[in-house]
Design brief:
The chain is of the alpha+beta class and about 625 residues long. The chain folds into 4 domains: about 190 residues, Trafficking protein particle complex subunit 3 (Muramoyl-pentapeptide Carboxypeptidase, domain 2, 2-Layer Sandwich), CATH 3.30.1380.20; about 140 residues, GAF domain (Beta-Lactamase, 2-Layer Sandwich); about 150 residues, Reverse transcriptase/Diguanylate cyclase domain (Alpha-Beta Plaits); about 90 residues, Orthogonal Bundle (Arc Repressor Mutant, subunit A), CATH 1.10.10.2840. Helices cover about 50% and strands about 15% of the residues. The protein has 23 helices and 14 strands. It has a 5-stranded antiparallel sheet with strand order 6-5-9-8-7, with helices on both faces. It has a 5-stranded mixed sheet with strand order 11-12-10-13-14. Strands 1-2-4-3 form a 4-stranded antiparallel sheet. Helix 1 crosses helix 4 and helix 8 runs antiparallel to helix 9. It is elongated. It starts with about 35 loop residues before the first helix and ends in a 6-residue tail after the last helix. About 0% of the residues have low confidence.
Length: about 625
């Protein structure tokens, strides 16, 4: 008599017999404890990991389902093939695995279409998992999924794949499934199909063992690298040691560059690779990614190696780059070790910066006293600076720099532009002036910067001190500031530093009155007028000069004449009428007329020596201040 799936019961399987070798009416089926299955599942997950255990249980369930489908087809006369197919879900209930019922059931066995969804109530697999493990991030009824896939595939004579979409084992309130043919799933099922591939488990175990051994080796390399980097940093060995440690650990080429893409340390395995490794070759987009603490991987055309680069970052500022060249595929292991090295390098650079800034602060304090404290004993400052490796007994030039904002209402000390200028100057002094020894000291003070530069450095560079000042202006230019630099004459004794800084300040005062844009001016260019600048402010000197010569200045402006020019050349030619006339190519009578007009307007006699002195002084002041031009 033909049977329906709903009529299937344990009576069709079980017969009482004590004969050996008899298993559930010769169907080769056995009854197994659910707890025993749970222990097996637990041990598989602990030994292989949940992903490999999942693959094992899926394949095991698939073969169990396919096997039971074959023996049920042979052992029972079914009403039709569809009843045979449905009997698979009844087997779950009979064996206590779950109570399965469909939600949708669209199956045509002749056409080969299969689209089923439904629920597994009271899944034994979900219960077993939660008995030994916490909730998982994905469904855990692997055997049920595999069994359903195997049973239906055998019945449909084509591959059917089930997926569990909800599961109590991952925190859902029920277990539910969807089953379709591989064709109907499309690309969505590609990853799941890999779990059903028939591979030798011994090979799987061997592969797992090799991975464990590789992981062990990598852990040892990582530990050794971290320990060696820490020891190198504590021993202040620096970036070259870091490059060597990383290169030897990974057996690869290492290049460490500063923020300007200049090589500062390397470990070479194959000469000539540096030209390919430099970060300078990266596109702007990739350089921007490095600012986000990323690791950039590059593959070069026609090259067998690939490059990994990360930035050395502190407080979101890049201070350099580390690049390694690998002959094998990159993974998290190499990325992790590269980032560890970059972190150690950042800590080392930070320590170095703190040490340098501390030393500079000490030197700055001493320089402040040397330049701006008239009562200080220079020999004491010399003794203390010499302990810091600086010799002020050598001839020096004193530099005084003032920074004025275009916005006069805003304090420069609060302007971020000032700090940009200060940072640029710090880099210039550290990396250029002091690159081959201590040749200069710098002292920032609100909107001013004071510095001393040894004559030995100037001579060694083959430049003049004014050229250095102009070079400084050029390198810190491009700001919205006027920068005035005054430079003293060279010192001949440590006691002269205070006097020379005053010279430099007076030069700046003059530059601010005379020029509307950034300028470098030497104290030596002022000549004897430094005596007057020391006693009076430039504004006072200008007022004195204009008062003395106002009449002819006003006359020249209104009449477009040259009385001031005539008076200047007359004073420069010893107040000699004939010499001046020849110099200016003017007739004697014309020159005599001009001089009479000058005396008339100024209400004085140019024959009077005291008047001559005041006139000469007034002319020199206006010329110095740029108010007249010859």
């Amino acid at each position: 008599m033909a049977m329906k799936a709903s009529d299937l019961s344990l009576d069709h399987f079980i017969s009482i017999s004590e004969r050996p070798g008899m298993r559930m009416k010769e169907l080769q089926l056995t009854l197994t404890s659910a707890d025993a299955i749970a222990l097996l599942r637990r041990d598989l997950i602990n030994a292989l990991g949940i992903q490999r255990a999942k693959r094992f249980l899926l394949r095991y369930g698939y073969h169990c389902g396919a096997h039971e489908a074959r023996i049920l087809k042979e052992a029972i006369q079914w009403q039709d093939a569809l009843e045979w197919l449905i009997a698979g879900s009844k087997m779950h209930q009979l064996t206590g695995r779950a109570f399965s019922y469909p939600d949708t059931f669209r199956v045509d066995m002749k056409k080969g279409t299969f689209d089923v969804s439904g629920y597994w109530n009271d899944s034994y697999e979900a219960k077993q998992h939660l008995a030994y493990f916490s909730e998982h991030i994905e469904p855990v009824c692997y055997y049920l999924v595999g069994y359903a896939s195997g049973y239906t595939s055998e019945c449909m004579e084509k591959q059917i794949i089930f997926k569990e979409v909800k599961c109590k084992g991952k925190g859902d309130d029920h277990c539910s499934y969807v089953g379709k043919t591989v064709e109907e799933w499309g690309k969505e099922i590609e990853e799941d199909l890999l779990y059903y591939q028939d591979e030798d488990m011994s090979a799987e175990l061997d592969q797992m063992y090799r991975r464990v051994e590789q992981q062990k080796e990598r852990l040892e390399i990582g530990y050794s690298l971290s320990r060696s980097l820490t020891q190198a940093m504590l021993q202040e060995k620096g970036l070259p040691a870091f490059a060597e440690i990383l290169g030897k650990s990974l057996r690869c080429q290492v290049l460490i560059e500063n923020k300007d893409f200049e090589s500062i340390a390397q470990y070479s395995v194959s000469p000539g690779l540096d030209q390919y490794m430099t970060v300078k070759n990266l596109e702007k987009k990739a350089k921007d990614e490095l600012r986000n603490h990323s690791v950039i991987e590059r593959e070069l055309k026609n090259k067998t190696f690939r490059l990994l680069t990360t930035a050395i970052i502190m407080k979101n500022n890049i201070y350099g780059y580390i690049t390694i060249a690998l002959n094998q595929k990159n993974d998290d292991f190499y990325t992790d070790l590269l980032e560890r090295t970059a972190t150690t390098a950042a800590l080392y650079i930070q320590n170095e910066r703190v040490a340098v800034e501390t030393e500079q602060r000490l030197k700055g304090d001493l320089l402040e006293q040397l330049l701006n404290n008239k009562e200080v004993k220079p020999q004491e400052i010399h003794a203390r600076l010499s302990l810091l490796g600086y010799d002020i007994t050598q001839p020096h030039y004193i530099i005084h720099m003032e920074i004025e904002s275009e916005n006069k209402t805003k304090k420069t000390s609060l302007n971020s532009e000032y700090f940009k200028i200060y940072n640029k100057l710090t880099d210039i002094f550290n990396h250029e002036l002091n690159r081959n020894g201590s040749h200069a000291l710098m002292l920032p003070k609100l909107n001013t910067v004071q510095a001393i530069v040894s004559k030995k450095y100037i001579d060694g560079e083959g430049i003049t001190i004014k050229k250095l000042g102009e070079r400084l202006l050029q390198k810190i230019g491009g700001t919205h500031q006027q920068i005035y630099i005054g430079i003293s004459e060279e010192t001949t004794h440590v006691s002269e530093f205070h006097k020379k800084i005053e010279e430099a300040k007076k030069a700046v005062e003059l530059a601010k009155v005379r020029y509307s844009s950034s300028k470098v001016i030497l104290a030596s260019e002022l000549g004897h007028l430094t005596l007057f600048l020391s006693a009076r402010a430039p504004e006072e000197l200008e007022a004195f000069a204009v008062e003395k010569l106002y009449s002819i200045l006003d006359y020249d402006q209104k009449k477009n004449s040259e009385l001031v020019v005539t008076l200047f050349y007359y004073s420069q030619n010893e107040f000699n009428l004939h010499k001046t006339a020849r110099k200016m190519s003017i007739s004697i009578s014309g020159m005599r007329y001009r001089l009479q007009k000058i005396e008339e307007l100024l209400n004085l006699s140019l024959a009077d020596s005291s008047c001559r002195f005041e006139i000469q002084l007034a002319l020199q002041i206006l010329l110095m201040l740029g108010k007249i031009h010859m």
